[in-house]
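Subject: sequence -> structure tokens, single chain

Hey, anyone have a minute? Need the predicted structure for the following. Not urgent.
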Amino acid sequence: METELGLLDLLSVTVLMDDYAGYDSGLLSQHGASYLVEAGYRHSDKAGRTILFDTGQSAGPVLNNMQALGKDPQEIDLFFLSHCHYDHTGGLAGILKASNRCRLPVIAHPEIFRPQYTVKPSLRPVGMGPENSLEVVKAAGGEMILTREPLTLMPGVISTGAITERTSFEASPTLSLITLVDGRQKNDQMPDDTSLVCIMREGLVIVTGCSHAGIISIIEKAIALTGINKVAALIGGFHLIDAEDDRIEKTIERLEKLEIGLIYTGHCSGLKAEALLMDRFKDRFYKLRTGMVIEIPSRKEG
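Reply:
Had a minute. Here:
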């Protein structure tokens, strides 16, 4: 399989943070997500790269788990933020400081710094806080690269850019969210939700944060961008925890029709959706946990 976008030979995704740490792991868990994506090539003069996909709710637990898992923050080549929520961005400045590097790219949507609030059960902020303002991120060594468009991070790895076309049952996020425009309340449809697409001989490996744009819509965007129909693996949260039963069932039916190879999900996916996915995908379903290592081609999934 050849592609103008490039092709990876090796991919390793280490779960640095998830809501669940597994049994007797000795690792820390917290509501949030952070994945260390290490991508490379077997026989090439192209160098591999290490991408930190999301930064969890705070830097301390992520850095603790990195140390326990033998990962060095100074080896991170770039950061990718899937969306604005605090449980995916809170650790940004702290991890940037720990990397002790200058002008590290931080890729995100231009609206990632907008004010955002949930209204259930009452009004509270859920977006990026002042501890990760543009000025703080720059002082910590980050250089924000803000784009709505798909972006090539390295040969074989692209971002989806904004998911503007969404399948009918994913037209709105499952969360009730608002933002403020000129001081006026406006419903927030999560325009900044973006994902990573890794292109491999085995097919596409799609890494998501919470899939607020809808996991099916994300897959369809990845296929449209690459021209590759085979999806080898999905990794990340699907945010079906507060979805209606009908939406969960439609999502699973579409995943079956798309013949997804492997599904690794946790964080915000919800027990009901996870149980149904495990029932329908059998040994192709894995629950994410802190410390899990996913390797493609598969050598270990531990």
